[in-house]
Amino acid sequence: MRAALPGSGTLIDVFSAAPGDVDTLRKLLLGTRNDSTIWTGTAGQDKAVAWSEPIPLAKVKAVARANNCTVNDVLVASAAGALHDYLQAHHARCSAVTFMIPVNLKPVDVTLPDNLGNEFALVQLELPTDEADPLRVLAVAKKRMNRIKHGHEAAVAFRLQETIAGFNRQLYEASVDLFTNRTIGTLTNVPGPPMPVYLAGSKVAGIVGWAPVSGNQPMSFTISTYNGNVVVGIACDKTLVPDHETIVDGFAGAFERLLAATSAVSS
């Protein structure tokens, strides 16, 4: 087991309540909350993937409407709930984890641009993993996602990496390793076509993807929507998370608890 990653502790918790741009500075200088636990360690060479059964998108939207939040907030909170269940099953503790969240910096345009290529930043999202109440987890996820949206973290992170890359390759790679190892992996939400699509005359049954894991990251979550359903793909390091299927199976259970809690409050 390696020591707690940079950013774990009371000082981080205090600054995480600061306004958007102050919190951005805190993340860059002090780091984020990412407690050591059963999936912390040195990654091996073998990786594995798994994916969930489809969850009706209409159910997710209903929970989002009832809680005055976004679909992404609901899905992110469900991911935190799945990790909470995994920790509980292994009698392990972990107060919070940090994920890298890709943020697109290009304006959405239905036309094909003259120059192709990605332009996105990776922001850091801290999620509670020691909270059993799904509505409280959702409230935290919503608050922290809103802080990212209303701040300049994505633009600052992108320009910082762009500037460092202009110096030399070694410095750039060192900075990538620093920010990568402050997180347990990538968590991304990929909206797909809302209607069925066809390939060579055959209907595409579903879409699933897996964000890569790098460095000593134990896992990544890729949440995909397609044709009215949500599917979660998880990629894991087999050394650090040998029973990764239980995490992706727990996603549906975490969402169902959130759905039940929402219904109980609304009734």
Find the CATH superfamily: Nonribosomal peptide synthetase, condensation domain
Fraction of residues in β-strands: 15-25%
User: Which percent bin holds the helix content?
Assistant: 40-55%
Main β-sheet: number of strands, strand sense, barrel status? 7 strands, mixed
Structural class: alpha+beta
Annotated CATH architecture = 2-Layer Sandwich
Give me the CATH fold name. Chloramphenicol Acetyltransferase
Query: What form results from the Cα inertia axes?
Result: globular
What gyration radius follows from the Cα positions, in whole Å? Answer: 18 Å
Name the poorly predicted regions.
Answer: 1-14
What's the CATH class, please?
Answer: Alpha Beta
Q: DSSP helix count?
A: 8
Structural domains: how many: 1
Number of strand segments: 9
- Give the CA-CA distance, first to last residue: 46 Å
Would you list the SSEs in sequence order as H and E? Answer: HHEEHHEEHHHEEEEEH
Q: Estimate the mean pLDDT confidence.
A: 83
Describe this structure in words.
- This protein is an alpha+beta fold and 267 residues long.
- It has one domain (41-106, 119-266): Nonribosomal peptide synthetase, condensation domain (Chloramphenicol Acetyltransferase, 2-Layer Sandwich), CATH 3.30.559.
- It contains eight helices and nine strands.
- The chain has helices at residues 10-15, 20-29, 57-66, 71-89, 134-150, 153-165, 169-180, 245-266; strands at residues 47-51, 55-56, 96-104, 120-128, 185-191, 198-199, 202-203, 219-226, 229-237.
- The strands form two sheets. Strands 1, 2, 3, 4, 5, 8 and 9 form a seven-stranded mixed beta sheet that branches. Strands 6-7 form a two-stranded antiparallel ribbon.
- A hairpin with a 2-residue loop joins strand 8 (219-226) and strand 9.
- Helix 2 crosses helix 5 and helix 3 (57-66) packs across helix 4 (71-89).
- The radius of gyration is 18 Å and the shape is globular.
- It starts with 9 loop residues before the first helix and ends with a helix.
- 37% of the residues are buried.
- Residues 1-14 have low confidence and may be disordered.
- InterPro entries: O-acyltransferase_WSD1-like, O-acyltransferase_WSD1_C.
- Pfam families: WS_DGAT_C.
